[in-house]
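Notebook p. 47: complex prediction with D-serine.
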Amino acid sequence: MNTNEYNYIQKQDEEVFAAITNEAARQANGIEMIPSENYVSRAVLEANGSILTNKYSEGYPGKRYYGGQEFTDVVETLAIERAKELFNCEYANVQPLSGAPANVAMYFALMEPGDTVLGMDLSHGGHLTHGHPTTEINKVFNFVRYKMKDIETGEIDYDELRAVALEHKPKIILAGFSAYPRELDYKKFVEIAKEVGAYTVADMAHIAGLIAGKALRNPFDDGFDVITTTTHKTLRGPRGGMILTREDADLAKRINKAVFPGLQGGPHMNLIAGKAVAFGEALTPAFREYAKQVLINAKAMEKVFKDAEVRLITGGTDNHLLLADVHTSFGISGKEAEEVLDEVGITLNKNMIADDPRTPLDPSGIRFGTPALTTRGMKEGEASRIAEIMIETMRNKDDENKKGGLRTELEALCNSFPIPECFM
Ligand code: DSN
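Predicted complex, structure tokens below:
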């Protein structure tokens, strides 16, 4: 790491400086496989760390409550226009602070308290913000669920989805996930939504970059009404959220009102500048290559795991992530797998698998993906070798010599693929 860039922190706050430099070394010297994480460019970091953090800008470009907005308006308009171009839609709100606030704003924009959302069950890959019983939003709206028909192939049970929709008449049918490795049949969602008069919303937080890079289908092309997303996963931007509307001006207006003044105050203009810069990067041909390679690398890992007869939930992957049942395949829990892989320098997360008999803090599975290692320039050869190392590590979890050798090999790999600073 070039520590000069943190020299003011170093001078005035040694403790924070030490934590940041240690984290920088951790990110550089290990293989990052949490599928929702990535590395941003220096340009995005500069925007994040810019003086735009000093400014209050309640409102929207051209309609602000405070003065001095001539440059913040430029920044937010750039982010909006680039988002619209990336996702082929007419309206974008780039102010949500992250994915969860984006989903909450979307719910309030599209529904009245007590209305119903039909979303994917968390245990089958959905997300907490899709109405998990522990969330506050679950007290305001009514959430009903659909699941996979077959865990071994990942096929969604569209018959059940339709039956639940006909019974409960949801206002929103929600597609999207945080732990589901397959493509969705967006047309089927739209057909069912039309039948019951529901809005179609896609929470694309995990795959937004893959859609922007044209490696996966865009739900708007199949008629979805709204997309919510984070900007910091495959899209490789700063931490933040965004709500996109395909063509309905009234819907877009309600979404803007729900975000501000409905739920948020002043937007974080430094993050919005980071979004504008990241979206500019995502519009390049190089980003399309990146998105394609993320999928190729995930497929390469899938092959190694399948050849080794490891149980993959849904049988494989169509996107950037994989879910493995390590309890069945290696006789260890997801927590043990996370810990032993961490010892050799691979970071991923333990994860519940569909219908998991174990608990969330000690589940049967692990979830891992290729967005971050692909950003480092690794291709299918490296991805395959990392998959082999994962298997060797889990099979030899108590063999210190073996793990030491694998750790050394991974460190060498990281040295050969330093985190890039620039993507343009
Ligand atoms: N924490 C994110 C993830 O890892 O998928 C989603 O909230």
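Notes: The chain has two domains: 31-39+286-416, 47-282. Residues 58 and 64 are 6 Å apart (CA to CA).
Next step: compare against the earlier run before touching the bench.
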